Amino acid sequence: MVLKRLSDAVRDNDPIYGTIQGWGVNQDGKTNGITAPNPQSQTRLQQDVYDRFGIDPGSIQLIEAHGTGTKLGDPIEVEALKASFGKYTQKTAYCALGSVKSNIGHCLTAAGIAGFIKLMLALKHRQQPPTIQFDTLNEHIDLAQSPFFVNRELRSWDVPASERRQAAISSFGFSGTNAHIVVAEHVAAPSVVTATEPAIIVLSARTAEQLQQKVRDLLAFIATAETAPDLAALAYTLQVGRQPMDERLGLVAASLDELAQKLRAYLDGASNIAELSRGHARHNRESVSLLGQDEDIKATIVERWVAQRKLAKLADLWVKGLEWDWRLLYETGLPQRIALPTYPFARERYWAEASDSESTFADSAGSATAMLHPLLHTNTSTLRQQTYRSRFDGSEFFLADHRVRLADQSVEKVLPGVAYLEMARAAVAQAAFGHDDAEHLELRDVVWLRPLAVRERREVSIALLVQDADRPEETLEFRIYSETAAGQSVHCQGSSVLKPAAAAARLDVESLERQMSQSRMEAPQLYQALAAMGLAYGPAHQSLTAIELGERQLLARLSLPATIANSDRHYVLHPSLMDGAIQASVGLMLHGGHLPNRPPVPFAMDSARVLAACSRDMIAWVRYAPGPATDAQTWKLDIDLCDAQATVCVQIRGFALRVLDADSAALPPAVARTVAASEAGAPAVDGERDTADEFAFYRQLVDAIANNEISIGEAVELG
Q: Region annotation C-terminal hotdog fold: residue ranges (predicted)?
C-alpha cells in the first residue's frame, strides 16, 4: 500500500482506492495476562477516534474485525464495538462484521495490512465480502438489537446518494497494543475528457521474453476491459507509472484499435511497422549519449519535437535510452492514471531439488535406477570396452520441444545435434574422473551421420576408445549408436582431448556490438523462419531472444527458457542454450537471401573447446568460418558462447550445417576404397566391424564431407 497526502494524489492524478478518515492507537495497560484483551481500552480508543475526527459510527457500514476466532477474544472485541457505537446510534443490524482471517488465516505481523487491503478492494468493487467458513455464532456473542450482523455472502455495497461508503478496521497486538482506523471511498471530481489525438505507448522489460509477455498482457487487457480505457490515460500511466528497463518498445497510435493492431503485428514478427521502435536502451546508449550529457541540447530538441508533435521521433529517443519529461506532452492537464497489467515476473522456482545422483529412470524391469546424467543414464562398461547407455521416451524437453521435418515429410522428435556433444563430454568426464562436471576438454572431428528420431522408447549407447595407449586419460574416441533390427546404427562420431584449465578469456562485446549495425531481428521473426524450414521448436528450445547482424557475423542473445529454468545445474553444455546458438545462424541465412525450404542439420564440426558451464543468460558470437565460401546448401560457422559478463564458456570452430538430403557430388575414390575394404573383410567383434577400423572409416567420411566431396545423405547411406 502507498500512503500519500490526498491533495498530492489528486494533483498527480493517482488512482485512489480510499481515504483515511481517522485513526488512533492505545495500550491495554494491566490485564489478566499478556494475551488477555481489555474491552475498556478498545472502547476508549474507538470513541476517541470518532470524537477527534468527527466521525459518526452510524455511517460506518462495514467493520473489518481483528476476529481471530477465539472463544475469549472475539466476544470482548464485539462487546467493545457495541459499547463504542452505542454512544452515537441506536440503529440495528446495519453494519456488517467480517474478518479476512476466515479466508487466509492469521498473518501475524501482517494481519493488520491484510485486513486493510481487503477493505480497499471492497471499496474499489463496491461490494461487502463474506466471512467464509462461518456456521455458528460464538455462544458468548449476542448481536440481537446491536448495530452488527455477520456477513455470510457477497453483497452489493449500496448507500444513499447523500452518503458515501465508509468502513473501519481494528488490529490488536500480542502485548496489548490496539489500533483502529476509519476509511472511506474517494469521490473523484468528474474527469476531464481528453482530446482524441495520437498517443505514445511505451513498454519495457528486463528481457525480450518478458517484453513479449507485457505486449500480450496489454492486448488481453484492451480486449477484456468492461469499459474501453481512455487512450491518453493508458499512455500516461505507462509513461510515468512504470520503471523503464533496458528492453524497450515504443509506438504511436491514434486509437485503441490501431494500438491493438500494431501490438499484434509486433507479436507476429512483422517488420517495418509504421511509427514503432524496438531496441535495447543500453546497447543504443552511445547514439544518444551527446543528448544525454547536455541538458540544454536535450531540452531544446525534445521541446521542439513536442511542439511539432513528432511523436514517433520522441518514442524512438526513449527506446534508445534517453529519458525525458513526459508531462511536456500534456499542456492542458495530466490524464488520470489507471490500473493496468503489472510486470510479468519470470516464474522461476527456487525450491531445493534432488541432486543429480538422486535423479532416476525406470530400467527394463520397471525398477527406479539412479542416472549419472540426463543424457547419460547408466554405466554398461565391460573389460573389453567403456560404454554408457541411456533410454529416452520422447517426453524429455530436448526431444519433446525439438521436432524436425525429415526427408519423408514426417515431423519427428529428433535428438538435437548439440545434445550428442554434451553426452560425449559427460561420458569422457565419467570415464576420466568418475563424475560428469569436468569442463576443460575439447571435442574434435565430430560428424553426425544419422538423426535419432524417438517415436517410442529408444536406447542409445556411447562407446569410448583409447586413441593413445601411452596417455589413455588424455585422448579418447567416442561413438554414439543405437541398436535396430538391421543392426547397429551410428548417429555421431568424434574424439576428445582433456585440456588443462586455461585463464578466463573474454569477448569484447561492446566492440562487437558496434560492428552489428546492419539490422536486428527478434525471436518471433527468427522462429517463424526456422519453422518454415521444417524446424519446430517448443518453449524449452526457444532460448534465442534476439540477434544483431553485422557483415558476415551476428551477436545472439540467449536466455534459458522459464519452462526449464532449474535445469541449468544438470548440464555443462546445456542443449537449449547450445541449440539457441546454432539456431541464430538463421539470421545469416535470411541476411544472405539463402533460406532453404528444408531443415539444415549439423553434419560435421572441427572442434568445440569447453572452458566453463553454460549460464542462464548468454551471448553467442556467430560468424562464417574461414575457408571456402558458403553455398546455398552448406554453412560452416565459428561460434563463441560467453556468459553475461562476457567470459567465454565454449569455443566452437568449423561447425558445419547442411540441408537435409541436399544434392551432392559422387563418392570420392579414397572413401570408396575405404568402404570397399571395410565391407570386404574388416575384422569383426561380436558380429560388428572392429572398433578401431570403424573410427578410421568415419574419419575418412568426415574429411570427405568437410571437403564437400560427398553429401551428408550419402555419408548416412555409407555409415
A: 517-666
Instruction: Look up the CATH number of domain 6-184.
Output: 3.40.47.10
The identity of residue 62, as a single letter, is: L
Q: What is the dihedral of CA 223, 224, 225, 230, to 10 degrees?
A: -10
Amino acid at the residue 606: D
**Can you read off the three cell numbers belonging to residue 141?**
456473542
From the list 246, 579, 606, 643, the catalytic residue is: 579
And the C-alpha cell for 431?
Answer: 570415464
* Statement: residue 335 has pLDDT above 50: yes
Cα–Cα distance between 188 and 333 in angstroms, integer?
Answer: 16
Q: Rounded distance, CA 615 to CA 637, Å?
A: 22
User: What mean pLDDT is predicted for residues 613-641?
Assistant: 88
Active site annotation includes 402: yes
- H and E: helices and strands count for the chain: 20, 31
Cα 102 from Cα 122, distance rounded (Å): 16
Angle at the Cα of 712 from the Cα atoms of 711 and 713, rounded to 5 degrees: 90
Question: What does the block give as the cell for 647?
Answer: 567470459
pLDDT at 332: 85
Out of 66, 280, 402, 541, which one is annotated catalytic? 402
Residues 349-363 pLDDT 10s: 776 654 443 455 554
Of 210, 211, 476, residue with least CA distance to 346? 210
* In the chain, where the domains are located: 6-184, 199-329, 509-659, 672-719
Question: Cα–Cα distance between 499 and 9 in angstroms, integer?
Answer: 64
Q: Which of 171-180, 549-558, 596-605, 706-715 has the lowest mean pLDDT?
A: 706-715
- Give the E-state strand segments of 45-143 in sequence order: 62-64, 95-98, 127-128
Convert the pLDDT of each residue in 193-215 to its tens digit.
455 689 999 999 999 999 999 99
The dotted CATH code for 199-329 is 3.30.70.3290
Query: For 380, which DSSP code?
Result: -
Active site residue 283: no
The C-alpha angle with vertex 533 and arms to 529 and 539, in degrees rounded to 5, equals 65
Instruction: Kindly provide the residue ranges of all beta strands, DSSP E only, lying in 411-516, ordered along the sequence.
Output: 411-413, 441-448, 458-466, 475-484, 487-498
Coil, strand or helix: which one is 623?
strand
For Cα atoms 453, 458, 459, give the angle at the middle one, nearest 5 degrees.
125
Contacts 24+ apart (CB under 8 A), 116-120: 116/1, 116/64, 116/169, 116/181, 116/183, 117/1, 118/64, 119/18, 119/62, 119/64, 119/167, 119/169, 119/183, 120/1, 120/17, 120/18, 120/183
Provide, for the chain, the percentages of residues in helix, strand and coil under a 3-state DSSP scheme, each rounded to the nearest 5: 35, 25, 40
Residue type, 316: D
Task: Give the CATH architecture of domain 509-659.
Answer: Roll (3.10)
Q: What share of the chain in percent tops pLDDT 90?
A: 57
